[in-house]
Amino acid sequence: MKLIGDWCLKSLVLSCILLAMPIRQVISFPANRLAHFTQLQTNPQVRTALDWFAAHHAWIDDEQARLTEIPAPTFQESERAAAVKVLLSAVGLEVTTDKTGNVIGLLRGSSDKEVVVLSAHLDTVFPPETEVKVHREKSRMTAPGISDNGAGLAALVAVARAIHEARIQPQRGILFVANVGEEGEGNLRGMRAVVDAYRDRLKAVIVLDGSSVDHVTTKALASRRVEVVITGPGGHSWSDFGVPNPINALVRGSVRFISTRIPSTPRTTFNLGQIEGGTSVNSIPYEARLKVDLRSEKEDELTRLEGALRECVAAGVRDELETSRDRSKGKLEWKLDSLGERPGGELAANSSLLAALRAADEFVGNQSRVERASTDANIPLSLGIEAIAIGAGGSGGGAHSLQEWYESDGRETGLKRVLLTLLASSAVTAEKTR
Ligand SMILES: [Zn+2]
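Above: query sequence and zinc ion SMILES. Below: predicted holo structure tokens.
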């Protein structure tokens, strides 16, 4: 009650100020100017948008469940994209689908010289045949992809609708983006296309990924995914024994690589994640493949680690050839292909976007820790464009598993945090109430 009373007083004072103002006045948000942020919070239209979330809790839950039940494996997002397009069109945005498959809804600003992006990825890690029916029990929903990124998509459409219902006029244009290709071998292709298309005008990017309000990703974890392929002549296990064997070579190279020394600072990791090859137990294989994931806080370490992998594979192939008894049928060939690369980057500690997030946290009574992760924000951050990735509120767990769950209790805190950060970045044109 006290809060409400306080707010009424504030909004009364603010209404008087607004009445005394010229018809259009821009409430902008210079970094570290919390006074301006307070002005934003007490803007009556912003208050309407903030209150919209609690009043439409059930609608947001239902849309999250409905979108989650449309399968959307990476590279097969089009059906879910079409459903999001309908939702964004319904709130008066100018919606297009780009040639990569991203759905982009524009809310025009009073000037479109600069735009701010709010995005959520459409794709999931689950193959198309996965059962994605959502099981609901009170506020808990269980289904693959319900949190990552059902929660992000629900927040995207909820924020767009709240802004529409409250008739908020941003100063900068806002692009509501449901993008493809965030997971795995999608290699952030959706976000790459968005940043490419709007690069000159892009003021900030806010990525919604999964649930919670406990973190803000401001540091992009650089990663590379590569595939080693070794081929040879193949043959019969008995009659051709002695012919160089690609699996032997791969094992020899792998054993060398896994003892490569890696630093703990900058934190650097590798994972031999998938190994394939051969056709039967009694055949000398003609091919062996290995997928490796390399990550580091520093790009240089990644380059060094990839170099080490190359050397080890080359040495493994050499060892196998040197010890093979029969080289008459052919030698071994090898190559290392890139499956994807996520560039690193970091948001400056004094950026206006981070200041906006911090002020929003303060407003909703939240504390969040800064994190380094691999998200869609890697792309803008690597180009020096202000970007963060945050959760969409509520709580969740079991991401990328069939037991994935999401609980929408307290979701409003996350949605308010998103809305205020977005509006602080876009700035709001206050219109005189009549
Ligand atoms: Zn995700």
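Confidence is low (pLDDT under 50) at residues 1-25, 28-32.
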